[in-house]
Design goal:
Structural class: mainly alpha
Largest sheet: none
Radius of gyration: 17 Å
Helix content: 55-70%
Distance between the termini: 45 Å
Strand content: under 5%
Shape: globular
Number of strands: 0
Number of domains: 1
Length: 110
């Protein structure tokens, strides 16, 4: 079982650390400087990690107390699936609004 978890962790580290940043810079951040696109991704990732660090203990306590473990798992699984599917809509050069860091009031060009 340990080898399987090690393989899963290495795959996840590779995707998050190597593949997704290159995808983000070349697609969503195509109209930005590479350093600016990477910076936006880092800011968004740090904000997401911060939110998870604050909210997770609270949601865990609620799930334990109210016996909502499976329902919360299903809800957050649905959010993850929807977010992953939404990557299909990311167009070339939509970095001006990606990560909630809008630098211009215009809508992104597809």
């Amino acid at each position: 079982m340990g080898d399987v978890r090690l393989g899963q962790q290495r795959f996840l580290d590779h995707v998050i650390g190597v593949v997704f940043p290159m995808y983000f810079v070349k697609t969503a951040g195509a109209n930005l400087e590479p350093s600016s696109a990477t910076s936006r991704l880092a800011i968004a990732s740090a904000a997401a990690i911060g939110i998870v660090a604050v909210v997770s203990p609270v949601l865990g306590a609620i799930a334990d107390y109210a016996a909502l473990k499976k329902r919360l798992l299903g809800a957050f699984l649905s959010v993850a699936i929807g977010s992953t599917a939404a990557l299909w809509f990311v167009g070339q050069g939509t970095g001006s609004w990606a990560c909630g860091c809008s630098s211009s009031p215009t809508s992104p060009a597809r």
